[in-house]
Amino acid sequence: MDYGNWLRPILIIVFLAAPAVSVRIASHYSDDPYLQPLALTAEGLAAAGEGEEADAVAVIDVQVLWGRDWDGQITRTGLRRIIGQSLKRQTDYFRFSIREMPGNRVTVSFVVGPNRYGPYAPGGMSDGLHAALTAQRMAHRKIE
Q1: Cβ-proximal residues to 7 (8 Å cutoff; 6+ apart), any chain
Q2: Band of the pLDDT at 11, cuts 50, 70, 90?
Q3: 30 CB contacts (<8 Å, ≥6 apart)?
């Protein structure tokens, strides 16, 4: 029985898929939000507008300042997932950025056009999230 005829295409597929699979596994288990598989996302589409209105909808810019000495329970990936899930229920137009800063605090700010809401601690960011979504809806009505 000749295994070379069917083994060769399987090996080619495995070698082509290995980099994508390894990046996906690494992004799942690491705490690095920048280690994500390449894909077209709503956040990426919003980032293409560089903070301007995309299809007559204002973009919510979520800015997180992450203290280098942070030792709390929430991780970068966890915070990104919580905010992303909350925003995706209401809008597709948001951009998320994390910057490191000295200290042991984490703050979240929401920017919609010229309006800035925050900084908020991760536990109290729901007020800022609500304000940003309201500002986005008001900007949308103003454009119409």
Answers
A1: none
A2: confident
A3: 77
Which fold would CATH assign to domain 42-143?
Glutaredoxin (3.40.30)
Q: Beta strands of the chain (E only): which ranges?
A: 60-67, 94-101, 106-112, 115-120
Spatial CB neighbours of 126, under 8 Å, sequence gap ≥ 6:
86
User: Can you tell me the distance from the alpha carbon of 43 to that of 61, in angstroms, rounded to the nearest whole number?
Assistant: 10
| Cβ proximity of 65 and 99 under 8 Å | yes
**Does the reported pTM lie above 0.90?**
no
Write out the residue limits of the CATH 3.40.30 domain(s) in the chain.
Answer: 42-143
Q: In the chain, how many H helices and how many E strands?
A: 4, 4
Q: CB neighbours (10 Å) of residue 96?
A: 19
